[in-house]
Amino acid sequence: MSETADPLVLDFVEWVAREPRAYAEVISTWKTSCPRLTIWEDAADRGYVARETVAGLGLVIAVTEDGERFLRTNGR
Question: Is pTM, for the whole model, over 0.85?
Answer without folding.
Answer: no
